[in-house]
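Hey, can you fold this?
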Amino acid sequence: MNVLSLKNVSKVFYSKTQETQAVSNLSFDVSEGEFVSIIGPSGCGKTTVLSLVSKLIAPTSGEVVLGDSRVGYMLQRDQLFEWRTIEKNVLLGLEIQRKLTPENRAYAEDLLKKYGLWEFRRRYPSELSGGMRQRAALIRTLATDPRLLLLDEPFSALDFQTRLEVCDDVYAIIKSEKKTALLVTHDISEAISLSDRIVVLTARPATVLAIHEPKLNDLPSPLKRRESPDFSAQFELLHRYLHGETK
């Protein structure tokens, strides 16, 4: 069952002097429970795709089909408010949506307990490591119970070692909570290690060049997938795609 479908989606941005086509006839689906990544050349319009999916902008033509799917958006930085405790940061989305019911509060508290942040709930963001902050940001997103998670390079601000650990953390949480995820990343290794499928975009205006399936789901974590004998060959293939080679 599809949680998301893009059908021949195009997006043109207009200014007083010119028009810029960011996306052209883009089509792909995301099925329930999938982790799908989007990669493409720098500036090709990857983040524009997330903006279209989240309905922050409307397509110029084509259709974005979400049905009744609730969307949660996780940004490049954790965007935690330094003057709010971790618990109050986690509850922020529910407050904004006016859904801070006893049941929803209990669910958010359960997430904090389940994923190792309950004892830090009264701490402030500056007192947490980068990885813990990112985990708190994910729990804040999950607390609103989205069906589809949009992840816009959420690990890019972290150092390499922390990034590997947080990738494992985030992947485990998303799978444990049975969520569907759409990730934008410029990191080929990250895409291979996390994804059920990878949508490869062309240079702008972005359209689908290829859809690649890593087929590493028998391995338990992103870190273990990086150790697979098939990993380097898949990296080379996707690297060629990003440089315009289709064979």
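Oh, and this one too while you're at it.
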Amino acid sequence: MNFTPISKAMIFAAGLGTRFKPWTDHHPKALAPVNGKSLLQRNIEYLQQYGIRDVVVNVHHFADQITDVLAASNGWGSRITISDEKDEVLETGGGLKKAGQWLKEAPFVVMNVDILTDLDLGAMIRDHFEHRPLATLAVTDRATSRYFLFDDKHRLRGWRNVKTGQERWVGGASSGGAVIEKAFSGIHVIDPAIFGLMKQEGKFSMVDVYLDLAAAHSVRGFDHSGSKLIDVGKPEAAERASKLFV
């Protein structure tokens, strides 16, 4: 078992899963099955491989189904804390900020429930502790429509939507140097100092947080190109995932 200096994580499971219909007409995407195990169970067990057994799960869409399954399964062996967003889904930034009361003591992992991967999380955590940024973001070279932009030292410099041409830069404008496009994998290692730095309130994205803070604080990319990775965003992706994750 690959133990790490991190013991806590948060799994984002509150989304509406609109791309995953018809399943999400009656269930949360977090409980969508892949080879007999839900996405949520698979990611709780993935974190356990690295000694992480204290997990915050945010809930909104069919929240009671998630809490019932977690109670019946005893969290599949992990200690689960529910962050209740039943009144309003808060997106990634707002969801993390709401859950901050449980994550303020030490660095922690955050991941999207619909990401399945065999990324070596231990290596990513070691990289985080070596460089001590505010956040380390898992990224790969895969093709997508939206990219984080990094310099040659893996520092976050901006964001780009290649379909619309929209660009956003750390500090408000491009520094003029070459940047490298990397696709975000939905997995972060974050220092709890971030909670004292977030200026946004209510519903907001972690993308906004990172672009705001990276001018004064280090936000780094960790490239794990070559790992298995699938975003189970649509039902057909679940079929592909069943071939990759047994």
